[in-house]
Write a structure and sequence with these properties.
Elements (H helix, E strand, L loop, with lengths): L3 H8 L3 H9 L6 H14 L5 H8 L4 E5 L6 H16 L3 E5 L4 H4 L6 E4 L2 H11 L7 E5 L12 E4 L1 H14 L5 E4 L4 H4 L4 H14 L7 E2 L14 H15 L5 E4 L2 H13 L9 E6 L12 E4 L2 H16 L7 E4 L2 E3 L8
Parallel strand pairs: 1-2, 1-3, 3-4, 4-5, 5-11, 6-7, 6-8, 8-9, 9-10
Antiparallel strand pairs: 10-12
Helix pairs in contact: 1-2, 1-3, 5-13, 8-10, 11-12
Length: about 350
């Protein structure tokens, strides 16, 4: 097995110079670096990652906890995080079966979690004596005052405001809201439900319930797998059964909206000619459906990179911004008709 001593001997330098060069820390002259890299290539030397971790007390591994790996939004968020982490010299892995007991035993330098409730649970379990850098990806849910935990927020309440303003601008006055959850059970818990209720209840008055297409009894169990696409298809049937007068449907998220698009296509109902559909998230997969789904984007790339960057600031001892926020924006497609 080739060692650093072999590299040092071939390059004519000290072992410490090889270590500083391979670790990217400390001064090594340009000539010596070139000699070291040449020796590394000639000998085929590969550093032992476990040995480096023990010496540096750093694994260069990060963890992202997302409750549902089948959710396109979290898959895309993870991919963006992973790409950025790799550019910064770290590996990010996905952890979907969450267990706070496993956190202390996992080889990682820090973790990103999908909401402040998970962050609070992890922090409470770790206690004051065990430090683990944690960053929260937040979506407008009221953030608790969590000591030592920064958050990167994209406010989905704002996303609903932006979407409703766009639909009205396109001439739609009768707008339904479609969700896979029990809207009225969950209306105080989820900002998308809260926003639609606050903004449209004064408009519809007693008829507000007529414009809510939900799944009564589904109360969002924690960390459960959620098949938004299938639920969207089912919701399209409920919309037709209810004979709702809406000219546009504002969907809980893009994957749910794509399910509705698919079901309407099966029933020969044309979008946007017969009904307009708008989603929330701005996932890349929406470009693979016909028509191209219009959506309110949650700036997935920006949030992903900010989460990783903030976590690395904590790990590497730089100043940390504990409150980061991005505004949603409209990403127009072809699924909304102008009346």
């Amino acid at each position: 097995m080739i060692t650093r001593e072999d590299v040092a001997k071939r390059a004519g330098v000290s072992v410490s110079a090889v270590s500083r060069t391979m670790n990217g820390r400390g001064y090594v002259s340009k000539d010596k670096k070139e000699a070291i890299f040449k020796a590394v290539e000639e000998l085929g030397y590969r550093p032992n990652p476990l040995s480096n971790s023990l010496k540096n007390r750093q694994t260069y591994q990060l963890c992202f906890f997302g409750s549902d790996i089948y959710n396109s939004f979290y898959t895309e968020l993870f991919n963006k995080m992973s790409d950025y982490a790799m550019d910064r010299g770290y590996t990010l892995f996905y952890f979907s079966n969450f267990s706070v007991e496993r956190v202390k035993t996992m080889l990682m330098d820090g973790m990103i979690v999908e909401n402040d409730n998970v962050a609070e649970e992890v922090q409470a379990f770790l206690g004051e004596q065990f430090y683990m850098p944690i960053v929260t990806a937040s979506y407008g849910v009221p953030v608790k005052n969590l000591k030592r935990i920064p958050y990167v927020d994209v406010d989905t309440y704002d996303a609903v405001e932006i979407g409703l303003a766009y639909l009205r601008e396109m001439g739609h006055k009768k707008i339904a809201f479609a969700t896979m959850y029990d809207f009225f059970y969950d209306s105080r818990l989820h900002p998308r439900h809260v926003a639609f209720s606050n903004l449209m209840k004064p408009v519809y008055g007693k008829r507000f319930r007529d414009y809510i297409i939900d799944n009564i009894g589904n109360t969002r169990p924690a960390f459960a797998r959620e098949d938004f696409f299938e639920e969207g298809m089912s919701c399209a049937d409920r919309f037709l059964e209810r004979k709702c007068e809406a000219t546009a449907i504002f969907c809980f998220n893009d994957e749910f909206a794509m399910g509705m698009l698919r079901r309407f296509e099966q029933l020969n109902i044309k979008v946007p000619d017969d009904i307009s559909i708008l989603g929330i998230d701005g996932i890349e997969n929406r470009k693979y459906v016909t028509p191209f789904l219009s959506s309110v984007s949650l700036n997935i790339r920006e949030q992903a990179e900010c989460c990783v960057s903030t976590l690395l600031d904590m790990i590497e001892g730089r100043r940390v911004n504990y409150f980061n926020s991005f505004k949603p924006h409209l990403s127009e497609g072809d699924s909304v008709k102008k009346l």
